[in-house]
Amino acid sequence: MQLLTELARFEIPDVLRFDAGPSGLVRARVSAADAAAVLYFNGAHLAEYQPVGEDDVLFTSGKSAYEVGKPIRGGVPIIFPWFGPRKDHPEHPMHGFARTKVWTLREAGQDPDGTVVLIFTLHDDEQTRALWPHSFELRYTVRIGQVLQLSLEVKNTSDAPFSFEEALHTYFFVDSVQDVTVTGLDGAEYYDKTDGLKRKTETDPVKIAAETDRLYVNTKSACVLDDPGFERQIVVEKAGSDSTVVWNPWIAKAAAMPDFGDEEWPSMLCIETVNAADNTLSLDPGATHRMDVTIRVERK
Ligand code: BG6
Predict the structure, then answer these.
(1) Active site positions, annotated
(2) Considering the entire predicted model, what is its pTM?
(3) Nearest to 237 by CA among 181, 294, 290, 299
(4) 24: which residues sit within 8 A by CB, 6+ positions away?
(5) Which of 63, 79, 94, 271 has the most ligand 1 atoms within 8 A of CB, as the residue to mutate?
(6) Residues within 6 Å of ligand 1 by CB
(7) Beta strand 223-227 pairing with 232-239
(8) At 294, which helix (H) or strand (E)?
(9) Distance (Å) from CA 214 to ligand 1 centroid
(10) Rounded to an integer, what distance in angstroms lies between the CA atom of residue 65 and that of residue 68?
(11) How far apart are CA 47 and CA 77, in angstroms?
(12) What is the DSSP string of 6-49?
């Protein structure tokens, strides 16, 4: 784990600094001309992102745990190497281990336009190999500016092929989830996790009027989250991703989650950039796969 004293060399005066957050968790704090952000090394977890002049783009729960080994509720959890409960291994951690490991900062800098760039890596270790017996390198590039760009590269550093699932599990902050719409998924097929994983076909626009947990497969499309209350649209563009998940826990599931406030469900909607289920990926030894998401706020 990198200590604050070791991270000092990455600091950019007035723009990038490091401090200890709740429970002493180390985090990076960005305050640039175009945007502010907070990112925890636990999970390389972007918890806050706010372009100048905007409300928060990401939702983070007031009840979130902040503890090494536990996921942060909200922001952008990184999901790898399986999505949801692991097939045939319900005892393994939900959504894999990448979101609860401490990542290493490799590079920090600023583009000429002021965008702050942070690059984190995560490698296999004894603990990950005990769950998933493969060698890998994850490289996560976060570009914080007027636009947010996230890029996750997975490299197979073992001598045999492996399969994996992955997600950038973005939680968006919305004024009132019942009033938002999501477009970009018209005609896409999805597994409805609230209805016995039945396979269904979507019709645009998606509206949220009950617990919603849909894993769309074979879709490369961008999504637009229209939020009339906040008078903005959030445009989610992606590359290297064939699945999208839309999730809101609604009332009962929110009440059952210990790290989520009972009254918080109207304030969030997850639109996740994913490769899972039918879109599980395979990588040969030495090969790399990259998945990108670009998030842009447009005023209405
Ligand atoms: C979503 C899944 O991606 O994540 C849901 O589709 C799940 O089924 C949700 O409930 C949250 O998962 P977790 O492990 O963070 O509670």
Answers:
(1) 169, 272
(2) 0.98
(3) 294
(4) none
(5) 94
(6) 71, 84, 94-95, 169, 193, 213, 245, 247, 272
(7) antiparallel
(8) strand 288-299
(9) 10
(10) 9
(11) 9
(12) HHGGG-BTTTEEEEE-GGG-EEEEEE-SSEEEEEETBTTEEEEE
Sign of CA dihedral 220, 44, 174, 212: positive
Report the separation in Å between the CA atom of 282 and the middle of ligand 1, taken as the mean of its atom positions: 23
242: Cβ–Cβ under 8 A, 6 or more apart, which residues?
A: 217, 218, 219, 220, 275, 279
Query: What residue owns the CA closest to ligand 1's atom 6?
Result: 213
Residue positions counted in the chain: 300
Q: How far is the CA of 226 from the centre of ligand 1 (A)?
A: 22
Residue ranges with strand state E in 73-204: 78-79, 104-110, 116-123, 136-144, 148-156, 162-164, 166-168, 171-173, 181-183, 189-192, 198-201
Cα–Cα distance, 106 to 69 (Å, whole number): 21
300 residues of the chain, pLDDT tens digit each: 899 999 999 999 999 999 999 999 999 999 999 999 999 999 999 999 999 999 999 999 999 999 999 999 999 999 999 999 999 999 999 999 999 999 999 999 999 999 999 999 999 999 999 999 999 999 999 999 999 999 999 999 999 999 999 999 999 999 999 999 999 999 999 999 999 999 999 999 999 999 999 999 999 999 999 999 999 999 999 999 999 999 999 999 999 999 999 999 999 999 999 999 999 999 999 999 999 999 999 998
Sole residue written with tokens 């709740």: 22
